[in-house]
Amino acid sequence: MNDIVCCAVVLFATTLGALAGIGGGVIIKPVFDAIGEYSAAEISVISSCAVFAMSLLSTVIGAKQLRRAKNILPVMSAIAAGSAAGGYLGEFIFSRAVSGNSPVKTVQNVILLILIVFVVIYMRKQEKKTFDCKSPFVGLLAGLLLGACAAFLGIGGGPINVAVITLIFGFEIKTAVVCSIMTILFSQGTKLITIAVRDISSFEIKILPFAVAAGLCGALIGRMLNKKAGAKAVNNCFIAVQVLTAALCIFNIIKYSV
């Protein structure tokens, strides 16, 4: 029964991920922590595989939208490249934390909660301050930071991505969503390659193929909804998911600290 619930969570999370650019891991991670069926390392692999599948298909489907954004393509490419390096860095930090027997789940949920609070405060503002930066070098640094956070927290990075991309580069919400999904694709891809090279044989997760299938279905449904939804609806969906995730983080912090 837990496996069915977990697959349903992945489908729901990746649908919202494709719709609002949040990746899906930000929901998968705290919900799986709450269910308690898998270890932190296993959750990280499941979340990354599902989110990678979702972001890959979403990027392919959204290729036309990327071509229309030629003027910001150099910045988006730099963010994606930085996130690939960040994915490796974040997975390296995560693997060291796990091997050191530190309270990884508690640390992840605390960091995630803090980030979500700042994201919600910023994204709720009617008049958002932006720097309108178009420097590829800044994009590279931003991608490195976002990719590292995403890989370490095992969340895909979407909620942080959208807010940071909007703040630094001034992209409107739907463009930020596409850019966020590209960032997720590269950071999670690097992370999965790192895991495969290092210790993939140590994982025996029966749910993994079903989680990937759910991620692909979520990409199709989410992209369809994204096309039909207006910018305001996408932004409201984004905020609602962050509030829900923050509540889950608080639950998990209490659960793993007591």
Average pLDDT metric: 84
How much of the sequence is in beta strands?
A: under 5%
In angstroms, what is the radius of gyration? Answer: 17 Å
Low-confidence stretches: none
Number of strands: 0
Helix content: over 70%
The topology string of helices and strands comes to HHHHHHHHHHH
| Broad structural category | mainly alpha
- Our count of domains comes out at 1
Describe the protein.
This protein has 258 residues and is mainly α. The chain has one domain (2-257). Helix content is 81%, strand content 0%. The chain has 11 helices and no strands. It has helices spanning 2-20, 25-35, 40-61, 63-68, 73-99, 104-123, 136-153, 158-169, 173-199, 208-228, 231-257. Helix 5 (73-99) crosses helix 9 and helix 7 packs antiparallel against helix 8. The radius of gyration is 17 Å and the shape is globular. The two termini are 27 Å apart. The model has no long low-confidence stretch (mean pLDDT 84).
